[in-house]
# Entry
Amino acid sequence: MAALLDGKTAVVTGAASGNGRAIARRFATAGADVVIADLQAEDRMGGDPTHEVIEGETDARAAFVECDVTDRDDLGAAVSRAEEFGGLDAMVNNAGIVGPQKPLTEVGYEGYRQLMDANLDGVYFGTQIAAAAMIDRGEGGSIINMSSVAGLEGTAGITPYSAAKGGVRLFTYAAAADLGPEGIRVNAIHPGAIETAMTTEGSPVFGTEQEEQMSAVTPLRRLGQPEDVANVVLFLASELSDFVTAESIAIDGGLVNTA
# Structure
């Protein structure tokens, strides 16, 4: 896998921590230069900033850009930074939040809007801005959008999250249809329970009874790690998936399709 992305440049949003951090590091080990686009450089679970880790562990170049994905100018700045490394080849719209976790009738407009801005609008405009840069460059590219298993099935208690992630899935298909003639592939991934700050601190699953219950009904009898997500994203960013677009890939140990 060492040379799968040799000579490529990627932007990964939300790459300071969790899945985004693992994706950025996997890209770098595969030869890509990486722009880390996040609200903060520090890893939310501790450790050195992702761009420093990449430059310490690999021969890849890495840069941090402060980026709020609800701000189109910030997204544009992150994509523009990729030009310093030779131009954008892969865009991973990973950043997102869980948002309100309460019954539908109790979700306020502010909480709903904040979640949609981050999880759906951020992906939409991240895709739009990345695609424009790729078209200008004329060498195609790969865009990977972060959805969730909640974008494949309805889940009580997180209705705005499910709505946003379902929107990401269908938007990805539409974008793939639009951008395919330009040689740009667009795919969505749908992680299940992955061990990140979101599932250990924000909405605890790992280290709780729920982890044991979910593992017991998951065909592979375990929940996921960020590296499980990173491996799939590496495939979608590389030429190994050159004829793959408008697809959704669940990364959940088989739970959704067997529950």
In short: The beta strands are 9-13, 33-38, 62-66, 90-93, 141-146, 184-191, 248-251.
